[in-house]
């Protein structure tokens, strides 16, 4: 992604998924599909969407897990 005014530099954003059930109960869910928590998780997704609203994004990469896909869609 090229940002205007920064000399054509590529910016890479690394973002962790929003709070999921495993995080809430302090369980390491690894590659298991956990749902985003109803309140805090979706608040985090809304904040992420707002943070990236005016950022030009060329590509978004995510694992195939539900929690990462839902989080990534907030940016894309």
Explained architecture:
The protein has 76 residues and is mainly α. It has one domain (21-75). 34% of the residues lie in helices and 0% in strands. The protein is built from three helices and no strands. It has helices spanning 21-24, 40-51, 66-75. It is globular.
- The string of secondary-structure elements, in order, is HHH
Domain count: the total is 1
Largest sheet: none
Tally of separate helices: 3
> In angstroms, what separates the terminal alpha carbons?
13 Å
Task: Name the poorly predicted regions.
Answer: none
Task: Tell me the β content.
Answer: under 5%
Proportion of residues in helical segments: 25-40%
Structural class: mainly alpha
pLDDT average, as an integer?
84
Number of strands: 0
Radius of gyration: 14 Å
Label the overall shape.
globular
Concise synopsis of the structure shown:
The chain is mainly α and 76 residues long.
Main attributes of the structure:
34% helix, globular, 76 residues
Helices and strands, with pairings:
Blueprint: H1 21-24, H2 40-51, H3 66-75
Helix pairs in contact: 2-3
